[in-house]
Design goal:
Length: 227
């Protein structure tokens, strides 16, 4: 109005009056993974097509006006490779130009480490465990450990790079947690039979382990899915 110009809206979804998937994801607190697929999903929305959604935890709930552009599926197996799909999932899957992952922060990473362990070594362990158990690192919302590790620079930095919060528990809070892989070494040095598995379970609100204890030369890791 001030310049006498004509506004040209170049965002396809805006021009078509359709929702944009990245804005719906932001409003739902979900991060984009494989963002190249955003273009295919938004193109379908702008064209008035219905986009399939796989959302096992029920975390994607757009406003009614936007919801009519989506159909929720109990199993994504029936979606063809050329059809757009929005998967709201903590698990890794095939990365294709049509499959957009929206990552909920529902995983807790329990980590034990040696004094002076580097962030790089800890993150290498996280990546290896996520690949082995087909989990998405972007879904890690909390890094948990024992109170004695609160000021370990590598652990704190690893959590920062993951974009995750940190929480530390006393030995009393971790003792008595039933874990599949108790450690006599942890009991000797830390006063509890488990650091990584127990911390992951507690941080996940007594959730279930989806990646049991794994380790490298300087750290141990377990991942639990929040309840």
């Amino acid at each position: 109005d001030l310049t006498g110009a004509v506004a040209v809206v170049t965002t396809a979804t805006d021009a078509a009056g359709a929702p944009a998937i990245e804005l719906l994801a932001r409003d739902a607190g979900l991060s984009l993974d494989n963002p190249v697929a955003t273009r295919r999903v938004n193109a379908a929305l702008a064209a008035g097509e219905t986009v399939a959604v796989f959302d096992p935890l029920g975390l994607f709930a757009p406003p009614e006006a936007a919801a009519r552009h989506f159909v929720w599926l109990a199993d994504p197996a029936g979606v063809g490779p050329d059809e757009p799909l929005v998967a709201v999932d903590w698990r890794a899957g095939p990365e294709t130009p049509t499959r957009l992952y929206l990552r909920p922060r529902v995983l807790a990473a329990g980590i034990g480490c040696r004094k002076g362990a580097s962030a790089e070594a800890i993150l290498e362990l996280v990546d290896a465990a996520c690949r082995q158990y087909r989990l998405a690192p972007a879904s890690i919302g909390l890094v948990a450990s024992i109170e004695a590790k609160r000021h370990e620079p590598g652990l704190v930095e690893a959590a920062r790079r993951l974009g995750a919060g940190t929480v530390f528990y006393s030995a009393d809070e971790l003792s008595g947690i039933s874990v599949p892989h108790p450690s006599a070494m942890a009991a000797k040095h830390m006063g509890v039979e488990s650091v990584c598995e127990a911390a992951a379970i507690v941080a996940a609100n007594r959730g279930r382990l989806v990646a049991p204890k794994t380790k490298n030369a300087v750290a141990t890791l377990a991942l639990a899915l929040a309840r």
